[in-house]
Specification:
The chain is elongated. Strands 1, 2, 3, 5, 8 and 11 form a six-stranded antiparallel β-sheet that branches. It is built from two helices and eleven strands. By secondary structure, the chain is mainly β.
């Protein structure tokens, strides 16, 4: 209640002689059903080439060609949407409950070669993922989204590794990974997923 009351603290009149007791805020029944709502949990965005191993797409150097992309989300979820660099989009409804099986969207046959401009050898691309919660109020804070970047290259081995960003903590920064090793069909499923596939990522 203290946290809910603090959202509307500014609605209380300012003290006139500094002796008024203002408490901890102004309680609102509506705030209780739109703020601090349960949110969907997004899993990693993964890709694979020619039916190979699924690999985390974040910061990857991916060969120009056709790939599959997938992402999962855990309930509470009403809709899961994926946009791969503007060349492929997919949506899948969630179960609408709190204890549903994870929802997975898989997009096959994504043509990444079309992203590289003529005369260029590689380009940076982005994937946008959004998951809508189950609270239909437009002010509800139960929707989540994530955006990540990757590199598409005609020759992945020729892409220069970027200089590591300064790390005040003294740790190491991740560099783009080389590919480990293609039909455009969309599949959505409600299936069990390993915990490792649904762990959060930095910057989500």
């Amino acid at each position: 209640m203290r946290k809910q009351g603090a959202y509307e603290y500014g609605r209380l009149a300012l003290p006139t002689d500094n002796n008024e007791y203002r408490g901890r805020g102004f309680l609102s029944a509506r705030n209780a059903v739109v703020y601090d709502q349960a949110q969907p949990t997004l899993g990693m965005v993964e890709y694979r080439v020619d039916g190979g191993e699924w690999t985390n797409l974040r910061d990857e150097v991916v060969p120009a060609g056709r790939v599959s992309v997938r992402v999962s989300a855990r309930s509470p979820l009403s809709m899961l949407s994926v946009d791969v660099a503007g060349v492929a989009q997919a949506h899948a409804p969630g179960g609408g409950g709190y204890f549903d099986e994870p929802t997975t969207v898989t997009i096959d046959d994504v043509d990444l070669a079309s992203l590289i401009p003529e005369g260029e050898e590689y380009v940076t691309a982005r994937v946008q993922v959004s998951a809508l919660g189950i609270n239909a109020d437009r002010h509800a804070d139960d929707d989540v989204s994530r955006s990540l970047s990757f590199t598409v290259a005609r020759d992945p081995g020729a892409v220069p590794a970027p200089e590591p960003e300064p790390d005040p903590g003294g740790g190491q920064r991740c560099r783009p990974r080389r590919p480990r090793c293609a039909r455009h069909h969309v599949r959505a499923s409600h299936e069990r997923a390993d915990a490792s596939e649904l762990c959060g990522e930095p910057g989500s």
